[in-house]
Amino acid sequence: MNNVNKTLYIPLYGKALVSKKGIILSDKKAEEIWASEKFPLKGKSKSKWLAYYVGMRSAVFDKWTADKINKNSNCLVLHLGCGLDSRFERVSVSHTRWYDVDFQSVIDERKKYYQETENYRMISADLKDSAFIEKLPTATRAIIILEGVSMYLSNEELQQLLATLNRKFEHLFVLVDCYTPLAAKMSKMRNPINDVGVSTVFGVENPQILEKSTGLYFVKEHEITPQYLINDLQGFEKFIFKFLYAGSLAKKLYKLYEYES
Question: Chain-wide mean pLDDT for the chain?
């Protein structure tokens, strides 16, 4: 895998850790895969605080995805930049057409742990090349999950991806987490992804930027670390986490935006 692909081990470790602790997110598949892979993470990338953060982020994405599926029958789900995530199992969507998309090397790794079914497929693709979108089946409504992906695409590349998706499907629901430009600048010095060799990332100045030329409209900003998930932590850990990842500085660095078309 290249360095960007290796970043998938950071959330995998985080979800495995919180699941094993019995807090925030239940993800037995992450526990299983991490026990098998044991990728040599180091430094900040193996911080328990970061693990709590990515666990919460995934739980928020899970809740949003399940809600959209329940309200939109016969929808299609695209999890772009899926890594080794087991979201399609966690939200129990055996009746929904679900496509997990990532680089070929990542999909090859996924196939060691996941089996395709009639409604579940894995697709190898580079998100900077939208050709794969034209090969997808048609659907009136599509749910687009972009977790931990946007920061590796320039604003123009991200706009092009969203615009192509909007042309393909009649109605889109999109949830995407984004760095701010300040976070992108700081990432050169103090981001856990540096520990796996990644130093170039991109930030989104404001949510309206992703409305530009995409046909999408901004719905609202979500909390990445909602209080009900913070409450899974106890005592000193809860206090430290709120300071590090749920305080005013953190909210200036990382955003979670919802869009529709």
Answer: 90
Residue whose pair of structure tokens reads 């990338």 in the numeric block: 45
* Residue 127 reports pLDDT greater than 50: yes
Number of domains in the chain: 1
DSSP 203: B
Distance CA 79, CA 175 (A): 10
Q: What does the pLDDT read at residue 199?
A: 57
Say which CATH number the domain at 159 has: 3.40.50.150
Give the contacts of 115 (CB within 8 A, at least 6 positions apart): none
Structure tokens at 106: 């990542």
Host domain of residue 104:
3-260
Asked if residue 121 lies in contact with residue 155, where contact means CB atoms within 8 angstroms, the answer is no
Residue 235 phi, psi dihedral angles, 5° rounding: 50, -125
Tokens of 112: 């060691």
Question: pLDDT tens, 193-219?
Answer: 444 445 578 999 999 999 989 999 999
d(CA 163, CA 115): 31
Longest dimension (CA), the chain: 51
pTM tops 0.90, yes or no = yes
Residues 6+ apart with CB under 8 A from 4: 152, 198
> Mind listing the pLDDT tens digit for each residue in 83-118?
999 999 999 777 899 999 999 999 999 999 999 999
